[in-house]
């Protein structure tokens, strides 16, 4: 199957600054089809514009559940704007976005916060908080600020820390951890939310190669083990090709091309995305495409 290209322009941006978001449970009445047949997200003719500047232009795409989808493209291509629209952090100027068949604006805030977990590029400060306390914040959508923290909540927190391998520093302060360790803790918080979808904005941008592999390996593991849909913004095409099931490339606010890593990692496609001549070769272990500039 060849990579699919779509081009068109015009976009917009409406911003409400927010720190992080969690997620929700679909009502039975909404489940008109088996879960795996309903797109995780369905985006139709989405435009986002701020002033005279178009940030997203007539973007239409459908994202499947239970897969890791990487959003790629040059700086300013619209990746983060698209992710924030999906997280209900920015309103669309035009078009519709549906999550599991329901328009985003129809979701109750707490219900959505139980279903979709969002981690921004710069998470809020966690000064003075232990790892266990931060992970426990993932349970907030289930009981609110004044709700009782139950034995079930405590078990969800313990399970999340075990799954993400942060138990060993559960009682340490978050601000004393390394960058890679902190990212694992934030992912543990998202897991504790019991969400079905993770939205991650450049989760490896400030990490060295070792921690990049560690964090993205964990994301891939969580998707496979829990059937989570993951949409992640990535700048490194090789990391995206290695850890994502599908890649969606944006250019100047437009959906340029989407496909599997093998379909995207071709010299002609890569040059259309990044604007520089590139070549590829197959990794000696596993055959995953490796991309490099000429």
Quick recap:
This protein is α/β, with parallel strands linked by helices. 30% of the residues lie in helices and 26% in strands. It contains 10 helices and 15 strands.
What this model shows, in words?
Keywords: ATP-binding, Cell inner membrane, Cell membrane, Ion transport, Iron, Iron transport, Membrane, Nucleotide-binding, Transport. GO terms for molecular function: ATP binding; ATP hydrolysis activity. Residues 41-277 form the ABC transporter domain. It holds the Pfam family ABC_tran. Belongs to the ABC transporter superfamily. The protein has 294 residues and is α/β, with parallel strands linked by helices. The chain has one domain (4-119, 195-293): P-loop containing nucleotide triphosphate hydrolases (Rossmann fold, 3-Layer(aba) Sandwich). The protein is 30% helix and 26% strand. The chain has ten helices and 15 strands. It has helices at residues 79-86, 109-115, 131-136, 140-143, 151-163, 179-192, 209-226, 237-243, 261-264, 267-274; strands at residues 4-5, 14-15, 41-50, 53-63, 68-72, 90-91, 94-99, 102-103, 116-119, 197-201, 229-233, 246-251, 254-259, 278-282, 289-293. The strands form four sheets. Strands 1-13-12-5-11-10-9 form a seven-stranded mixed sheet, with helices on both faces. The chain has a four-stranded antiparallel sheet with strand order 4-3-7-8, covered by helices on one side. A two-stranded antiparallel sheet has the order 2-6. β12 and β13 form a beta hairpin. Mean pLDDT is 87; it is low at 1-33.
